[in-house]
Amino acid sequence: xxxxxxxxxxxxxxxxxxxxxxxxxxxxxxxxxxxxxxxxxxxxxxxxxxxxxxxxxxxxxxxxxxxxxxxxxxxxxxxxxxxxxxxxxxxxxxxxxxxxxxxxxxxxxxxxxxxxxxxxxxxxxxxxxxxxxxxxxxxxxxxxxxxxxxxxxxxxxxxxxxxxxxxxxxxxxxxxxxxxxxxxxxxxxxxxxxxxxxxxxxxxxxxxxxxxxxxxxxxxxxxxxxxxxxxxxxxxxxxxxxxxxxxxxxxxxxxxxxxxxxxxxxxxxxxxxxxxxxxxxxxxxxxxxxxxxxxxxxxxxxxxxxxxxxxxxxxxxxxxxxxxxxxxxxxxxxxxxxxxxxxxxxxxxxxxxxxxxxxxxxxxxxxxxxxxxxxxxxxxxxxxxxxxxxxxxxxxxxxxxxxxxxxxxxxxxxxxxxxxxxxxxxxxxxxxxxxxxxxxxxxxxxxxxxxxxxxxxxxxxxxxxxxxxxxxxxxxxxxxxxxxxxxxxxxxxxxxxxxxxxxxx
Length: 505
Description:
There is one protein chain. The protein has 15 helices and 13 strands. The mean pLDDT is 92. It is of the alpha+beta class. It has two domains: 6-117, Beta Polymerase, domain 2 (2-Layer Sandwich), CATH 3.30.460.80; 210-472, Cytochrome-c3 Hydrogenase, chain B (Orthogonal Bundle). It has a four-stranded antiparallel sheet with strand order 1-5-4-3, covered by helices on one side. Strands 2-11-12-13 form a four-stranded antiparallel sheet. Helices cover 39% and strands 17% of the residues.
């Protein structure tokens, strides 16, 4: 009897490639569909890898209640060019099937939206180009289209937004990304230089340097079969929470700027600076680059830095509480946030939303709690949940998560001060286990980050897969602006603050 799937616990060690269950496609479809009918499960990764003869489809489904991940696969001969789509029954798989289609040319029959995700340089169909993107169209004399981008009004990453409007009301938004594909996953394949891979990982999404560097380091440590000291695990969690605080405060400033509330904007901008300057004091970089490395650290936390962190959190945390109390009680601001850009719980579930985009719709999806890693395995996290799914909900969630993260860091520093401080230096030549599969999950400030790898003979990385939470959540933004005034798009966009480069890779 063929084993249906393998349950693994993220970051707990690699799985031999021979132990990955390989099912016939109908069995694969039935199993995946059956698992995803349970709302406590969601697809964490679904991607294609393979050889010149076969393509292997690997699917990882997270069980948020059981703290495990179900691993299953299907082996497809190269000459087979089409498969039945799972998206009609499991809409959250739409983005993964689109990505597989773009990279391998496999057509998913019945997929309602089989379009390119990013027009990567290594796409299967080289005849398709950015200017040929098949935008959705609606015919009607009263309708008009509005195109925004790809050159952004602010100097940030490129992306094109195509609105179909009836007057000022948005009927549909299609988001076209992929303008800066860097082929970053290929930078990991065949590599043995751990420093080079660490530098690449912390550059995947610049505002999530700690989150992605931690996901990569965990993956390398898992494949090498090593466990880092408890003190470093605690330090990594502190760094991750500092990153969360800094971005949430900065995004609160951006929300205020979009509704012309200058006091809130400048206060939050100043408070964000105090947090990232503290990270710079710790490791020499305001965004935490260089702080997380496989096997150890170059910047162990010291009593002096810990004291500085606590001082900033006491002062800036209090000031942020004061300004957010004001922001979310002003009628003029509430009128611009409340009932604007609403994503329902059902929509978020269908889109497979993760992180704060899910938690603001009442979905308790936080991998620090559901799939704990590092010191979170000993420190219980209670996810912050809001229900209304609008801009106000996402703003309030940020404010509440800052308060929670301040408390978490204080608790972690208290624990850290009483544990043995083992200063292990980074190891850039870790011997990775041969012929193995491993994955690493981290809850970044946006949500669920996943890095996955397959090794071959001698532990060489034959395949490396990266998923930023933005891959799930861009569709949630597209849904949020339906039936809104087009002038509300900037504040809706800021309330998510999704990553272009994290999506484009």
